[in-house]
Design goal:
The protein folds into 2 domains: 129 residues, Aspartate Aminotransferase, domain 1, CATH 3.90.1150.10; 245 residues, Aspartate Aminotransferase, domain 2 (3-Layer(aba) Sandwich). It has 396 residues and is of the alpha/beta class. It has 15 helices and 13 strands. The longest helix is centred in the last third of the chain and has 21 residues. Bound molecules: pyridoxal-5'-phosphate.
């Protein structure tokens, strides 16, 4: 029965019934026109969600991590330098992937809870007068700490330094849930996955690739076969795929975009901002704080809650799973045990969020933490009452 409960891990997210049904389909010949008909709206929809200008959408049978690998292996060569800030588990893993590919990663360390440090990035770019840095990697939403970085700011740093490195952005836990402006921010590769803002099961890496990144493929010598963008677009031209596509997931992706656009992307973003604020009101009422250091860094898709001294966030997550059948996210890496994470992205309503906050409180009480039952829920209720949902008022 606990499978009826919503999940509060920051991905995979809850799957709307309509998307589940769209994914569930009989076998279809992926070399037939029927597949092309299903694929085209998914590609066109991704283009709108990313707010791409020129460029190509690439949809691979993979996950977000495969999207990173595809971005790097299609555009760079062994020994190339990339610049990346490390401030959480996901920015760390992308750096690790680059190093294992034989890239030279110039790492800017920042405390966990901070975002991409713009001044340090600009400084590193200015110092690189020889133009060794081929790409700047940025994690838009660091899912381990609940921190949003300022991608427009990184673009300004590149421009201010007069540096022509490419800008690669991990938007796995932001795209489809928080505003993303590939064209406006001058992003060269944006990486998303199916199981977060797109509300699908895991299984697709979804990328936007700018013409500049595309051109870089001509000289890039890192080995690539399965992820080679050129094979993909060659096959696209005839409405197909270079190998067997995940047809059901692609049908689900088209449905996902239909749902997002039916609600209106701006309403989707507003809904996430509102539920995130309700969550933070609850956190404050518990006498706790988000791991994100300052309000402008607060993520709209996940809150990492710093637990009081002497408490262990992982114990709360375990108890929630065992006793109440509800999933929260554990702290990862440097903040293991020090935080637990409430994912509030994808298909989520006020009703669902309140159930999660209520269960978190019950677990705190069970564990003997000094929290009054109902305190966080009440704070969230007050905020939600006072701030009606744009989505529902428009539908009414
Ligand atoms: C989930 C996530 C990933 C990894 O994606 P997988 O689909 O698990 O490979 C990468 N980056 C961020 C920011 C994420 O939240």
């Amino acid at each position: 029965m606990s499978l009826q409960n919503p999940v509060f891990i920051p991905g995979p997210t809850n799957i709307p019934e309509e998307i589940r049904k769209a994914c569930d389909m009989p076998t279809l010949d992926h070399r037939s026109g029927a597949f092309a008909k299903l694929f085209a709206p998914a590609v066109a929809g991704v283009r709108r969600v990313l707010n791409m200008g020129q460029g190509e959408v690439i949809i691979l049978p993979s996950t977000g991590t495969g999207g990173w690998e595809a971005a790097v292996s299609n555009t760079l060569s062994p020994g190339d330098t990339v610049l990346a800030a490390r401030f959480g588990m996901f920015s760390h893993r992308w750096i690790d992937l680059c190093q294992r590919h034989g890239l030279n990663v110039e790492i800017i360390e920042a405390p966990w809870g901070e975002g991409a440090p713009l001044a340090a990035i600009e400084e590193a770019l200015r110092a690189d007068s020889a133009g060794k840095i081929k790409a700047v990697l940025a994690t838009h939403n660091e899912t381990a700490t609940g921190v949003r970085s300022d991608i427009a700011g990184i673009r300004r740093a590149l421009d201010a330094a007069g540096h022509d490195a490419m800008l690669f952005v991990d938007g796995v836990s932001s795209i489809g849930s928080m505003p993303f402006d590939m064209a406006g921010w001058g992003v060269d590769i944006a990486v998303a996955g199916s199981q977060k803002g797109f509300m699908l099961p895991a299984g697709l890496a979804i990328l936007g690739v700018s013409p500049k990144a595309w051109a870089a493929m001509d000289h890039a010598t890192l080995p690539r076969t399965f992820f080679d963008f050129r094979d993909m677009t060659k096959a696209y031209a005839s409405g197909g795929y270079p190998y067997t596509p995940a047809v059901g997931l692609i049908a689900g992706l088209a449905k996902s975009i239909e749902l997002l656009e039916e609600e209106g992307l701006d309403n989707v973003y507003a809904r996430h901002a509102r539920l995130a604020e309700a969550t933070r009101r609850a956190v404050a009422a518990w006498g706790m704080r988000p791991c994100a250091a300052r309000p402008e860094l607060y993520s709209d898709t996940v809150t990492a809650v710093v637990v009081p001294e002497g408490c262990n966030g992982t114990e709360l997550v375990q108890l929630a799973a065992e006793k109440y059948g509800m999933a929260f996210g554990v702290g990862l890496g440097e903040v293991a045990g020090k935080v637990f994470r409430i994912g509030h992205l994808g298909m989520l309503t006020d009703v669902m969020l309140l159930s999660g906050l209520a269960v978190a409180e019950m677990c705190m009480a069970d564990l003997g933490w000094q929290v009054r039952l109902g305190s966080g829920v009440a704070a969230a209720q007050e905020y939600l009452r006072a701030t009606p949902s744009a989505t529902l008022s428009e539908a009414a």
